[in-house]
Design brief:
Length: 374
Protein backbone atom coordinates (compact mmCIF):
# COMPACT_ATOMS: atom_id res chain seq x y z
CA UNK A 1 0.00 0.00 0.00
CA UNK A 2 2.83 2.37 0.89
CA UNK A 3 4.55 1.71 -2.43
CA UNK A 4 1.28 2.36 -4.29
CA UNK A 5 0.81 5.68 -2.48
CA UNK A 6 4.34 6.71 -3.40
CA UNK A 7 3.71 5.87 -7.07
CA UNK A 8 0.42 7.81 -7.04
CA UNK A 9 2.13 10.78 -5.40
CA UNK A 10 4.87 10.79 -8.04
CA UNK A 11 2.24 10.64 -10.80
CA UNK A 12 0.32 13.54 -9.25
CA UNK A 13 3.50 15.61 -8.93
CA UNK A 14 4.45 14.92 -12.56
CA UNK A 15 0.96 15.80 -13.81
CA UNK A 16 0.88 19.04 -11.81
CA UNK A 17 4.41 19.94 -12.92
CA UNK A 18 3.49 19.32 -16.55
CA UNK A 19 0.38 21.48 -16.26
CA UNK A 20 2.36 24.29 -14.64
CA UNK A 21 5.03 24.19 -17.35
CA UNK A 22 2.42 24.23 -20.12
CA UNK A 23 0.61 27.11 -18.43
CA UNK A 24 3.50 29.35 -17.40
CA UNK A 25 6.48 28.51 -19.63
CA UNK A 26 6.32 31.36 -22.20
CA UNK A 27 7.74 29.38 -25.12
CA UNK A 28 4.49 27.45 -25.45
CA UNK A 29 2.76 30.70 -26.38
CA UNK A 30 -0.61 32.19 -25.53
CA UNK A 31 -4.30 31.54 -25.98
CA UNK A 32 -6.59 33.41 -28.41
CA UNK A 33 -8.63 36.23 -26.89
CA UNK A 34 -12.39 36.46 -27.18
CA UNK A 35 -12.30 38.56 -30.36
CA UNK A 36 -10.05 36.06 -32.12
CA UNK A 37 -12.16 33.13 -30.94
CA UNK A 38 -15.24 34.74 -32.49
CA UNK A 39 -13.41 35.16 -35.79
CA UNK A 40 -12.23 31.57 -35.67
CA UNK A 41 -15.76 30.29 -35.10
CA UNK A 42 -16.93 32.22 -38.16
CA UNK A 43 -14.27 30.69 -40.39
CA UNK A 44 -15.54 28.11 -42.91
CA UNK A 45 -12.38 26.09 -42.17
CA UNK A 46 -13.08 25.80 -38.44
CA UNK A 47 -15.21 23.09 -36.86
CA UNK A 48 -15.49 21.69 -33.33
CA UNK A 49 -12.61 23.77 -32.04
CA UNK A 50 -10.17 22.82 -34.82
CA UNK A 51 -9.09 24.13 -38.20
CA UNK A 52 -9.32 21.72 -41.14
CA UNK A 53 -7.51 21.33 -44.45
CA UNK A 54 -9.33 21.83 -47.72
CA UNK A 55 -9.07 18.10 -48.48
CA UNK A 56 -9.01 15.19 -46.01
CA UNK A 57 -5.58 15.01 -44.38
CA UNK A 58 -5.09 12.28 -41.84
CA UNK A 59 -1.96 11.14 -40.03
CA UNK A 60 -2.65 7.70 -38.65
CA UNK A 61 0.36 7.45 -36.37
CA UNK A 62 -0.15 5.31 -33.29
CA UNK A 63 1.84 5.67 -30.08
CA UNK A 64 3.94 2.74 -31.24
CA UNK A 65 4.56 4.50 -34.58
CA UNK A 66 5.70 7.68 -32.83
CA UNK A 67 7.97 5.72 -30.51
CA UNK A 68 9.53 3.92 -33.47
CA UNK A 69 10.09 7.20 -35.30
CA UNK A 70 11.75 8.73 -32.22
CA UNK A 71 14.00 5.70 -31.90
CA UNK A 72 14.98 5.91 -35.58
CA UNK A 73 15.66 9.66 -35.25
CA UNK A 74 17.99 9.02 -32.32
CA UNK A 75 20.00 6.36 -34.12
CA UNK A 76 23.36 7.45 -35.47
CA UNK A 77 23.12 7.96 -39.22
CA UNK A 78 25.89 9.92 -40.86
CA UNK A 79 23.77 10.69 -43.90
CA UNK A 80 20.96 12.54 -42.12
CA UNK A 81 23.29 15.30 -40.95
CA UNK A 82 26.40 16.86 -42.55
CA UNK A 83 29.71 15.34 -41.51
CA UNK A 84 31.02 18.85 -40.85
CA UNK A 85 29.58 22.25 -40.08
CA UNK A 86 27.81 23.92 -43.03
CA UNK A 87 29.62 27.11 -44.01
CA UNK A 88 27.26 30.02 -44.55
CA UNK A 89 27.94 33.04 -46.74
CA UNK A 90 28.35 36.03 -44.40
CA UNK A 91 26.08 39.01 -44.94
CA UNK A 92 27.65 42.36 -44.17
CA UNK A 93 25.42 44.39 -41.82
CA UNK A 94 26.46 47.52 -43.74
CA UNK A 95 25.10 46.05 -46.97
CA UNK A 96 21.63 45.83 -45.41
CA UNK A 97 21.38 49.31 -43.96
CA UNK A 98 20.29 50.98 -47.19
CA UNK A 99 17.90 49.49 -49.72
CA UNK A 100 19.70 49.56 -53.08
CA UNK A 101 18.39 51.01 -56.30
CA UNK A 102 18.14 47.99 -58.54
CA UNK A 103 18.85 48.13 -62.28
CA UNK A 104 16.00 47.80 -64.75
CA UNK A 105 14.49 44.32 -64.68
CA UNK A 106 15.52 43.58 -61.08
CA UNK A 107 12.60 43.81 -58.68
CA UNK A 108 14.39 43.03 -55.43
CA UNK A 109 16.23 40.23 -53.71
CA UNK A 110 15.82 37.42 -51.23
CA UNK A 111 18.35 35.99 -48.78
CA UNK A 112 17.84 32.49 -47.36
CA UNK A 113 18.85 32.16 -43.71
CA UNK A 114 18.30 28.41 -43.60
CA UNK A 115 15.19 26.25 -43.17
CA UNK A 116 12.23 28.52 -44.04
CA UNK A 117 13.67 31.81 -42.79
CA UNK A 118 14.11 34.44 -45.50
CA UNK A 119 14.71 38.16 -45.87
CA UNK A 120 12.77 39.57 -48.82
CA UNK A 121 13.41 43.05 -50.21
CA UNK A 122 10.59 44.17 -52.49
CA UNK A 123 9.08 47.54 -53.41
CA UNK A 124 11.35 49.33 -50.98
CA UNK A 125 10.26 47.14 -48.05
CA UNK A 126 12.07 44.55 -45.97
CA UNK A 127 10.06 41.47 -45.04
CA UNK A 128 11.14 38.56 -42.88
CA UNK A 129 9.42 35.24 -43.58
CA UNK A 130 9.23 32.61 -40.82
CA UNK A 131 12.28 34.06 -39.05
CA UNK A 132 13.40 31.10 -36.96
CA UNK A 133 16.99 31.98 -36.01
CA UNK A 134 17.34 29.74 -32.95
CA UNK A 135 19.79 26.88 -32.53
CA UNK A 136 17.14 24.16 -32.18
CA UNK A 137 13.45 23.88 -33.21
CA UNK A 138 12.23 22.86 -29.79
CA UNK A 139 10.45 24.33 -26.76
CA UNK A 140 13.55 23.24 -24.84
CA UNK A 141 16.44 24.18 -27.17
CA UNK A 142 19.05 22.41 -25.04
CA UNK A 143 17.46 19.10 -26.01
CA UNK A 144 16.59 19.75 -29.65
CA UNK A 145 18.54 18.84 -32.77
CA UNK A 146 21.08 21.57 -33.44
CA UNK A 147 21.44 23.81 -36.48
CA UNK A 148 23.80 22.41 -39.12
CA UNK A 149 25.67 25.73 -39.22
CA UNK A 150 27.02 27.10 -35.96
CA UNK A 151 26.49 30.68 -37.01
CA UNK A 152 23.98 32.74 -38.98
CA UNK A 153 24.96 34.84 -42.01
CA UNK A 154 24.30 37.91 -39.85
CA UNK A 155 23.35 38.34 -36.22
CA UNK A 156 19.81 39.47 -35.51
CA UNK A 157 21.06 42.51 -33.63
CA UNK A 158 22.84 43.64 -36.82
CA UNK A 159 19.74 43.48 -38.98
CA UNK A 160 18.26 46.81 -40.08
CA UNK A 161 14.70 47.79 -39.16
CA UNK A 162 12.24 45.26 -40.59
CA UNK A 163 9.03 46.61 -42.08
CA UNK A 164 7.05 43.41 -41.55
CA UNK A 165 7.27 39.76 -40.53
CA UNK A 166 5.05 37.08 -42.10
CA UNK A 167 4.47 33.75 -40.40
CA UNK A 168 3.05 30.63 -42.04
CA UNK A 169 2.16 28.76 -38.82
CA UNK A 170 3.13 28.28 -35.20
CA UNK A 171 5.41 25.20 -35.21
CA UNK A 172 8.73 25.60 -33.41
CA UNK A 173 10.82 25.42 -36.57
CA UNK A 174 8.96 28.49 -37.91
CA UNK A 175 7.83 30.53 -34.89
CA UNK A 176 10.63 30.78 -32.33
CA UNK A 177 10.29 32.48 -28.95
CA UNK A 178 13.96 33.45 -28.69
CA UNK A 179 14.02 34.95 -32.18
CA UNK A 180 10.94 37.06 -31.46
CA UNK A 181 12.50 38.37 -28.25
CA UNK A 182 15.51 39.55 -30.23
CA UNK A 183 13.52 40.85 -33.21
CA UNK A 184 10.33 42.36 -31.86
CA UNK A 185 11.67 45.89 -31.35
CA UNK A 186 12.99 46.00 -34.93
CA UNK A 187 9.70 45.07 -36.60
CA UNK A 188 6.92 47.39 -37.70
CA UNK A 189 4.12 44.89 -38.44
CA UNK A 190 3.40 41.19 -38.00
CA UNK A 191 1.09 39.36 -40.44
CA UNK A 192 -0.02 35.94 -39.21
CA UNK A 193 -2.66 33.28 -39.82
CA UNK A 194 -5.72 33.26 -37.58
CA UNK A 195 -5.00 32.22 -34.00
CA UNK A 196 -1.25 32.90 -33.99
CA UNK A 197 -1.31 36.48 -32.68
CA UNK A 198 -1.79 35.32 -29.08
CA UNK A 199 1.72 33.85 -29.03
CA UNK A 200 3.27 37.15 -30.09
CA UNK A 201 1.16 39.13 -27.63
CA UNK A 202 2.29 36.92 -24.75
CA UNK A 203 5.89 37.52 -25.85
CA UNK A 204 5.54 41.28 -25.66
CA UNK A 205 4.40 42.38 -29.13
CA UNK A 206 1.71 45.06 -28.99
CA UNK A 207 -1.61 43.76 -30.41
CA UNK A 208 -2.01 46.79 -32.67
CA UNK A 209 1.14 45.73 -34.56
CA UNK A 210 -0.34 42.32 -35.45
CA UNK A 211 -2.90 41.46 -38.12
CA UNK A 212 -4.48 38.00 -38.41
CA UNK A 213 -5.82 36.43 -41.59
CA UNK A 214 -8.08 33.61 -42.65
CA UNK A 215 -7.49 31.90 -46.00
CA UNK A 216 -8.42 34.20 -48.86
CA UNK A 217 -8.11 37.41 -46.85
CA UNK A 218 -5.66 40.07 -47.93
CA UNK A 219 -4.42 43.54 -47.15
CA UNK A 220 -2.94 46.30 -49.29
CA UNK A 221 -0.03 47.50 -47.21
CA UNK A 222 2.65 50.05 -48.04
CA UNK A 223 2.47 49.35 -51.78
CA UNK A 224 2.35 45.55 -51.39
CA UNK A 225 -0.59 43.18 -51.58
CA UNK A 226 -0.40 40.41 -48.98
CA UNK A 227 -2.81 37.51 -49.35
CA UNK A 228 -3.13 34.60 -46.92
CA UNK A 229 -3.80 31.39 -48.86
CA UNK A 230 -4.25 27.69 -48.00
CA UNK A 231 -1.57 25.15 -47.24
CA UNK A 232 -2.04 21.47 -46.37
CA UNK A 233 -0.56 21.09 -42.93
CA UNK A 234 -1.44 21.44 -39.23
CA UNK A 235 -0.50 23.53 -36.19
CA UNK A 236 0.16 23.38 -32.46
CA UNK A 237 2.79 24.09 -29.82
CA UNK A 238 1.49 22.18 -26.79
CA UNK A 239 -0.17 18.89 -25.87
CA UNK A 240 -3.76 19.96 -26.49
CA UNK A 241 -3.75 22.73 -29.13
CA UNK A 242 -3.29 20.68 -32.32
CA UNK A 243 -4.95 22.58 -35.20
CA UNK A 244 -6.04 25.27 -32.76
CA UNK A 245 -4.57 27.96 -35.02
CA UNK A 246 -4.46 28.27 -38.79
CA UNK A 247 -1.55 27.50 -41.14
CA UNK A 248 -1.09 29.14 -44.52
CA UNK A 249 0.92 30.12 -47.56
CA UNK A 250 1.40 33.74 -48.69
CA UNK A 251 1.00 35.57 -51.97
CA UNK A 252 3.17 38.70 -51.92
CA UNK A 253 2.48 41.07 -54.78
CA UNK A 254 4.12 44.31 -55.83
CA UNK A 255 4.18 46.54 -58.90
CA UNK A 256 7.31 44.87 -60.27
CA UNK A 257 7.17 41.27 -59.04
CA UNK A 258 5.02 38.62 -57.44
CA UNK A 259 6.36 36.11 -54.89
CA UNK A 260 4.79 32.91 -53.51
CA UNK A 261 5.81 31.56 -50.10
CA UNK A 262 4.50 28.03 -49.61
CA UNK A 263 4.88 27.66 -45.85
CA UNK A 264 4.73 23.97 -44.90
CA UNK A 265 2.40 21.91 -47.04
CA UNK A 266 1.64 18.53 -48.44
CA UNK A 267 0.79 18.46 -52.12
CA UNK A 268 -2.78 19.30 -53.04
CA UNK A 269 -5.09 21.06 -55.50
CA UNK A 270 -4.69 24.39 -53.69
CA UNK A 271 -1.45 25.05 -55.58
CA UNK A 272 -3.16 25.09 -58.97
CA UNK A 273 -6.02 27.17 -57.57
CA UNK A 274 -3.52 29.72 -56.30
CA UNK A 275 -1.71 29.73 -59.64
CA UNK A 276 -4.93 30.19 -61.57
CA UNK A 277 -5.99 33.14 -59.40
CA UNK A 278 -2.70 34.88 -58.58
CA UNK A 279 -0.03 33.55 -60.93
CA UNK A 280 2.31 33.77 -62.62
CA UNK A 281 4.96 34.28 -59.93
CA UNK A 282 8.43 35.65 -60.59
CA UNK A 283 9.75 33.69 -57.61
CA UNK A 284 8.47 30.81 -55.52
CA UNK A 285 9.87 29.84 -52.11
CA UNK A 286 8.83 26.19 -51.87
CA UNK A 287 8.96 23.72 -49.02
CA UNK A 288 11.36 20.90 -49.89
CA UNK A 289 12.48 18.73 -47.00
CA UNK A 290 11.58 16.89 -43.78
CA UNK A 291 9.35 14.43 -45.64
CA UNK A 292 8.56 10.79 -44.98
CA UNK A 293 6.03 8.34 -46.38
CA UNK A 294 4.41 8.21 -42.93
CA UNK A 295 3.59 11.92 -43.01
CA UNK A 296 3.31 12.45 -46.77
CA UNK A 297 -0.02 14.35 -46.49
CA UNK A 298 1.64 17.30 -44.70
CA UNK A 299 5.12 17.50 -46.29
CA UNK A 300 5.84 17.25 -50.00
CA UNK A 301 8.53 15.06 -51.50
CA UNK A 302 10.85 17.04 -53.81
CA UNK A 303 9.17 15.88 -57.00
CA UNK A 304 5.87 17.24 -55.68
CA UNK A 305 7.62 20.47 -54.71
CA UNK A 306 8.58 21.02 -58.34
CA UNK A 307 5.07 20.12 -59.48
CA UNK A 308 3.61 22.60 -56.97
CA UNK A 309 5.95 25.28 -58.36
CA UNK A 310 4.63 24.51 -61.84
CA UNK A 311 1.04 24.51 -60.55
CA UNK A 312 1.33 28.03 -59.14
CA UNK A 313 2.91 29.11 -62.45
CA UNK A 314 6.27 29.99 -60.98
CA UNK A 315 9.29 31.16 -62.96
CA UNK A 316 12.25 30.66 -60.59
CA UNK A 317 12.04 28.37 -57.56
CA UNK A 318 14.15 28.35 -54.40
CA UNK A 319 13.78 25.12 -52.37
CA UNK A 320 13.55 25.85 -48.63
CA UNK A 321 12.89 23.86 -45.42
CA UNK A 322 16.05 21.79 -45.87
CA UNK A 323 19.76 21.94 -45.04
CA UNK A 324 19.38 23.35 -41.52
CA UNK A 325 17.82 20.90 -39.06
CA UNK A 326 17.29 17.16 -38.83
CA UNK A 327 13.51 16.72 -38.63
CA UNK A 328 13.17 13.61 -40.76
CA UNK A 329 15.06 10.44 -41.66
CA UNK A 330 16.23 11.23 -45.20
CA UNK A 331 19.77 12.09 -46.27
CA UNK A 332 20.21 15.82 -45.57
CA UNK A 333 21.20 16.40 -49.23
CA UNK A 334 18.33 14.36 -50.63
CA UNK A 335 15.77 17.23 -50.89
CA UNK A 336 17.89 19.52 -53.03
CA UNK A 337 19.39 16.71 -55.14
CA UNK A 338 15.97 15.35 -56.05
CA UNK A 339 14.50 18.81 -56.62
CA UNK A 340 17.35 19.78 -58.97
CA UNK A 341 16.93 16.55 -60.96
CA UNK A 342 13.18 16.99 -61.21
CA UNK A 343 13.48 20.65 -62.21
CA UNK A 344 15.88 19.71 -65.00
CA UNK A 345 13.52 16.97 -66.13
CA UNK A 346 10.56 19.36 -66.15
CA UNK A 347 12.45 22.25 -67.72
CA UNK A 348 11.90 24.70 -64.86
CA UNK A 349 14.40 27.06 -63.24
CA UNK A 350 15.72 26.38 -59.75
CA UNK A 351 18.14 28.44 -57.66
CA UNK A 352 20.25 26.75 -55.00
CA UNK A 353 21.87 29.55 -53.00
CA UNK A 354 24.09 28.97 -50.03
CA UNK A 355 22.68 30.11 -46.72
CA UNK A 356 23.28 33.86 -46.82
CA UNK A 357 23.74 34.11 -50.60
CA UNK A 358 21.41 36.69 -52.19
CA UNK A 359 19.16 35.89 -55.15
CA UNK A 360 18.07 38.82 -57.32
CA UNK A 361 14.44 38.69 -58.43
CA UNK A 362 14.22 39.00 -62.21
CA UNK A 363 17.93 38.48 -62.93
CA UNK A 364 19.05 36.32 -65.83
CA UNK A 365 21.63 34.59 -63.65
CA UNK A 366 21.05 33.03 -60.24
CA UNK A 367 23.01 30.76 -57.86
CA UNK A 368 22.87 27.15 -58.99
CA UNK A 369 26.11 25.55 -57.81
CA UNK A 370 25.89 22.18 -55.98
CA UNK A 371 27.63 23.58 -52.88
CA UNK A 372 26.30 20.79 -50.64
CA UNK A 373 28.52 18.25 -52.42
CA UNK A 374 31.79 19.95 -51.47
Amino acid sequence: MKALLIVLAVIVVLVVATMLVLRFYPTFGGRPNESTRRRMQQSPHYEKGKFNNLIPTFLKLTFADNFKIMREMMKSNNETTPDQEIQVQPVSPESLQTLPTYPEGIAGKVIWFGHSALLLELEGKRLLLDPMFGNAPSPFPAFGGKRFSKKLPVELEDLPPIDAVLFSHDHYDHLDYGSIQRLKNKVGRFFVPLGVACHLVRWGVAPERIQEFDWGEHTDWEGLSLTCMPARHFSGRGLSDRNGSLWCSWVIGGQTARVFFSGDSGYGPHFKEIGDKYGPFDLTLMECGQYNTRWAPIHMVPEDTVQAHIDVRGNLMIPIHWGTFKLALHDWRDPVERAVREAAKRGTKIATPRIGEPVLIGAENYPDSPWWRS
